[in-house]
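Write out the 3D structure for:
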Amino acid sequence: MDFNGLSIDQAPPISAPLRFFLTAPLFAILAGFLVLFSDPEILRTRFALESIAVTHTITIGFFGFVMLGALTQMLPVLAGVKIPNIEKVAKYTHLSLVFGLVFFILAFIDDNKLFYLLAMVGLGVGFLTLISFIALSMQDVKNFTPTVKNMAISLFFAFTSVLLGLMLLGEYVSQEIGSIHMFLANVHSVWGIFGFAGILLIGVAFQVLPMFYVAPSFKEFCLSKVAKIISAGLMLWLILNLFIPSYALVAKIWIATFFWAFATTAWLKLNKRKRKVSDITIWYWRVASISLSTGSFFWIFDEYFDSQYTVLVGLFFGLGFLLSIMMGMLYKIIPFLVWFHLNGAGYMSIPTMNEMIDKRLSKLQFFMFLFSFGGFVFSFFMPQFLWFFALSFIISMVILEYNIVTCALLYAKIKKTKPDFDMSAFK
């Protein structure tokens, strides 16, 4: 692995990112159960209350938690800045987000005004506090790498998406759905997916692919320009939708083209990697690249089809792209964190990163996920089979949680023993 340019000494305590990573699969499991016990027609509309509950259980509970965990870990290491009181901030914002999301789910299942309000408070405090702490710490950044620049841009879209989400929740609290509710919901979802998640993951890929896979570095144009070009496309999409919506297709083609280009580039970089050993994370990157390309194509033309096809687009972006790439990263990042923190504490007799997770279980988890993803797309046309693929998804996420917990327990077990070397003199 290549540690060049990393500020290893600035890494936060492992508990800061790990609490987010451990929680994410639990909400994915819950989303699976929500689908299992929902009306099969849930895939037909994105605006039904049940659909909103399921969607946000995944987008906030899995995507949001993984991305926030990654930011708390990677920003100090990549940019060399220390987020103040990160252990306490991570602990309390995590609790606030869990509290808020649980009430969010209950609110949309029961259509309860009090629950909407509690969800608004919990999610608002959790997201805005952690985003603010991260953003303020970036003022002292000296090592402004392309990955860090992408993180900064993605935080802007995260902040905006959260504010829009809180505004939308506020309308449910007041029971007065405004005339621009649908427009705000579209901006909230598009900026959240492409601006926050998409740009952040592209930035992380700049670091992760060369570091973990010894793949060739991205070209300077991709490193310095792509995030700015996508951001400009998202701004253009907003302006066109506000004033001349008939031309919004231009901005969609702009955005989709550069995400398709990233998917293609990532695929080619993995083909040229120096470590040709294939593992489960490579398969996740492959699925993510194909899904991103397919989803981008469908998204461009979704307005020419029935509105229910937006859900199909969401399946490719949400499960095929975002969930795949995040699970692939978790299988690399979590063993690395365990190894890194134990090694830094003076433990030498520890398993390698490849030995921390059972490869047979990770393969089973991948195939169960792939089966459920394909099944959800199939169930869009044959909804009576949705329950079967929901079960497959639940099993896949249970295995993922088990694999992450195994790493955490290994860390806790080794920490109880005496280090091979006393590292106190180096602190």
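The mean pLDDT is 90.
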